[in-house]
Design brief:
Blueprint lengths: L3 E7 L5 H11 L3 E5 L7 H17 L4 E6 L7 H10 L5 E4 L12 H10 L2 E4 L29 E4 L7 H18 L5 E4 L6 H15 L4 E2 L4 E3 L4 H16 L4 H15 L5
Helix pairs in contact: 3-4, 5-6
C-alpha cells in the first residue's frame, strides 16, 4: 500500500539521507515537508523556503515542499507566487496568525492565489502556540474562499475541537461545487489533533460525511529526528481504519491518493 504523509514539519538543518532512511523504516513512499514558520519577516521566510527547497530537491521522488507563509507580511503574495512557480513547492502552509481569512485586507492575497490556482494546507482547530491564536483558526472563517474557486485547501487536524464545524464547511463547499459545476475546493487532513477519546468518532464521522476521496492522512511529525511519531501515528490510524471497516482501496485513498491529488509531485 502506498503511504504519503501530508504534514511533516522542518526545524533547523536536516540530513535528507537520514530522513529517507527513516521513511524507508516507516514504510513511507513520500511526504510533504513544511518549511519553518516565520511570523514577521519576509526575508527570513524566504531563507526558510530556500532551506526546505534544498531538502526536498535532495530526494525529489520522496519529498515535496509546502511553503509556510503569513499573508499579512508585506510582499508575501509575491514570495508565495515565487515558491509555487519558481522554487518547486507543491503548495502553501498557512496558519491564521491573529487574522481572520474573511478580512478585507487579505483579499488581494487570495485573489493572487486564486490566479495561481494555489493549493493550501491550513491549520484549523486549537493552536498550541502563537499566543491566544486559536480563535482565528475556526474552519468556518475559510468560507471566504468560496469567492476564490481556484484555491483548493485542506483543513488540518479535523479542526479539533470544531470537528462538526469542519464537516459543515465541507458540506458548504461541496454544495457550492455541485451548484456551480466547479471542482470541490475543500479537504480534511486527519493529523492529530483529535485526542484518543474522540479520535475514532471524529475520523468515522469525517469518512462517513466527506468520503475517503476528500480526506488526507498525516502525522504532524517534526524533522530532524527519527520520525518515530510518524510510525506511531501510522500504526494508530491503520488500526482505526480497520475498526471502521474501511476497504483496502479506501485506506490507500486516504493514506496517499488524496494527498497526491491535492499536492501532486512536481514534474
Amino acid at each position: 500500500m502506498r503511504i504519503v504523509d501530508c504534514h511533516v514539519h522542518v526545524t533547523g538543518v536536516v540530513d535528507a539521507k537520514a530522513v529517507v532512511q527513516a521513511m524507508d523504516r516507516n514504510g513511507l513512499a513520500r511526504m510533504m515537508v513544511l518549511s519553518e514558520t516565520e511570523r514577521v519577516s519576509l526575508g527570513k521566510t524566504r531563507r526558510n523556503l530556500l532551506a526546505t527547497k534544498k531538502l526536498f530537491e535532495a530526494a525529489p521522488d520522496r519529498m515535496s515542499g509546502l511553503a509556510w507563509v503569513n499573508p499579512t507580511i508585506p510582499g508575501m503574495a509575491g514570495l508565495a507566487e515565487e515558491a509555487i512557480t519558481d522554487l518547486g513547492f507543491a503548495g502553501l502552509k498557512i496558519i491564521p496568525d491573529h487574522w481572520y481569512a474573511w478580512e478585507e485586507r487579505l483579499e488581494p492575497f487570495w485573489e493572487r492565489m486564486n490566479q495561481l490556482k494555489a493549493h493550501i494546507l491550513f491549520h484549523t482547530g486549537i493552536l498550541y502556540g502563537y499566543d491566544d491564536g486559536s480563535r482565528f483558526c475556526q474552519p468556518l472563517w475559510l468560507e471566504k474562499l468560496l469567492h476564490y474557486p481556484n484555491i483548493h485547501f485542506a483543513m488540518a487536524h479535523v479542526s479539533w475541537p470544531w470537528c462538526e464545524e469542519c464537516l459543515a464547511v465541507m458540506g458548504r463547499f461541496g454544495s457550492a461545487a455541485q451548484a456551480s459545476g466547479t471542482a470541490w475546493q475543500s479537504y480534511i487532513d486527519l493529523t492529530p489533533g483529535t485526542p484518543n477519546h474522540i479520535r475514532k468518532a471524529a475520523v468515522g464521522n469525517a469518512v462517513d460525511f466527506a468520503k475517503p476521496e476528500r480526506i488526507l492522512w498525516g502525522s504532524d511529525s517534526t524533522i530532524p529526528g527519527d520520525l518515530k511519531y510518524q510510525k506511531e501515528y501510522l500504526d494508530i490510524y491503520l488500526k482505526l481504519f480497520d475498526e471502521l471497516g474501511l476497504t483496502g482501496k479506501q485506506q490507500e485513498r486516504i493514506l496517499s491518493g488524496t494527498t497526491e491529488e491535492l499536492f501532486p509531485p512536481r514534474k
